[in-house]
C-alpha cells in the first residue's frame, strides 16, 4: 500500500508539473521521468504478501523462480499496453459517429506538452497510461480485477478530467462522456487482460 500511495502522489505531482510548467522542454522532461520511473517499477518482484494471492502457485517452502518474476513483469506490460491501445475506442467511435476527427482527443492531450499536436498527444497518452497502469496492476485484487478496474478508471478520470483537464481548454472542450468511457475501458481492459494472462501463466509455471 505504501508503494501505491507513493506512486499516486508521484502521478499527481507529475500532472501538476505538466500543467504548470511553461517551457515545453520542461513538460517533456516531466513525462520522460514519469515514464522511465514507471517502467523500472514494473520489473520489481512481488512482495511475499502479494505472492500468496497470486495465481502463480509455488510449492510450500520454495521461493518463486526467476521465470515467475519475468512472467509477472511481462503480463503487466502486456496488460497496460493493451489497455492503453484500446481504451480510446469509445471516444474515437463517438467522434466518427458525430462527424468529427478521430484524433481530436489525441491532439488535445498534446496541449499538456505545450501545444495541440498528434505526436505530443501520443507521448502524453503513453506516459499517463504507463504511470496509471502501474498503479492499477499493483492495486487490483485477483479475481475482482475487472470490477475494481472500472472503479479505478473512474477515479483516474476524476483526476485527469475533473482536476487537471478543467485547467486545459482543449481537454475541457472535449465531450466528457466519451472521455469518461475511455478511462473506464482502460481500467476494465487492464484487469481482464491481467486476469487472462496470469491464469495462463499460472498453469504454465505451476511446478507440480
Describe this entry's structure for a reader.
With 208 residues, the protein is mainly α. It has one domain (2-40, 64-205). The protein is 75% helix and 0% strand. The chain has helices spanning 2-20, 24-42, 48-51, 66-86, 89-97, 104-110, 118-139, 145-164, 169-172, 176-205. It is elongated.
Total count of helical runs of at least 4 residues: 10
Number of domains: 1
Largest sheet: none
Q: In sequence order, what are the helices and strands, one letter per element?
A: HHHHHHHHHH
Distance between the termini: 31 Å
Radius of gyration: 18 Å
pLDDT averaged residue by residue: 77
Number of strands: 0
Poorly predicted spans: 1-8, 46-59, 203-208
Outline type: elongated
Strand coverage percent: under 5%
Which SSEs are present, and which pair or pack?
Elements: H1 2-20, H2 24-42, H3 48-51, H4 66-86, H5 89-97, H6 104-110, H7 118-139, H8 145-164, H9 169-172, H10 176-205
What characteristics describe this protein?
208 residues; 10 helices; disordered N terminus; disordered C terminus; single chain; 75% helix
